[in-house]
Write a structure and sequence with these properties.
CATH superfamily: DHBP synthase
Order of helices and strands: EHEEHEHHEEHEHHEEEH
Helix content: 25-40%
CATH topology: DHBP synthase
Radius of gyration: 16 Å
Mean pLDDT: 93
Shape: globular
Number of helices: 8
Structural class: alpha/beta
Number of strands: 10
Distance between the termini: 42 Å
Number of domains: 1
Length: 216
């Protein structure tokens, strides 16, 4: 199924279907401020399904989309000083922070080798509204198969995953085509000093200009 996702009214109309779809352990495709993403509820069985769907190793984690620091903290994630400063300056936006915490609240398979969980406060207004309506973080990974470019729109998602849509295991939110936007910048905040994992939409120079010594 493909649902329109262009206006606040579309987002409100889609919420019941999305809630039921995710509760059943199924997968969602949706636009973000960077690329189209694939996601699931943050639980073991849906994460297994998402890993199989993407054809990626089960131990490779997915990031989480949240509605802000309060939601992340409600799920047990912690904000060391660098993470707090970066979130204040750049959230919502294309900055992913790898955070400590979440033990007992989030699946350990979301953790990377450094022990943290990658989180972003999405600046896509309709996805933020959707996550707020769900009341829990939404997992996120680019909507593509390994080695392929991320899908730029819902129709491209449908071309890549037609069988999943036809059988009902993938629900697509059509937010229109996206521009050629770099992926999010990733900063690991689990250690004594922040480390730049990936320089993406926000360059290192901008991180340092706005956060100073607390930037990587």
């Amino acid at each position: 199924m493909i649902l329109p996702f262009l206006t606040p009214a579309d987002a409100e109309a889609a919420l019941p279907a999305v809630r039921g779809h995710l509760a059943a352990g199924r997968l969602l495709a949706y636009p973000t401020e960077t690329v189209y993403g694939l996601g699931s509820a943050p639980a073991e069985a849906p994460l297994d399904a998402l890993a199989r769907f993407k054809g990626r190793p089960a131990q490779k984690p997915f990031l989480l989309l949240v509605t802000g620091r309060p939601m992340a903290e409600a799920w047990g994630l912690a904000f060391p000083p660098a993470a707090a400063a970066l979130a204040t300056e750049f959230w919502p936006g294309p900055l992913t922070l790898v955070l400590p915490g979440g033990e007992g609240r989030l699946p350990d398979r979301l953790r990377g080798p450094e022990g943290g969980i990658a989180v972003r406060h999405t600046s896509h207004p309709l996805v933020a509204r959707l996550v707020a309506g769900l009341g829990y973080p939404l997992t996120s990974t680019s909507a593509n198969l390994p080695g392929q470019a991320p899908a730029p729109g819902a129709q491209a998602v449908a071309t890549i995953f037609p069988d999943a849509i036809a059988e009902g295991s993938l629900l697509v939110l059509d937010g229109g085509p996206l521009g050629n936007v770099p992926p999010s910048t990733i900063v690991d905040c689990t250690g004594p000093s922040p480390q730049l994992v990936r320089e993406g939409a926000i360059p290192r120079e901008e991180l340092r200009r706005r956060v100073g010594r607390l930037a990587p």
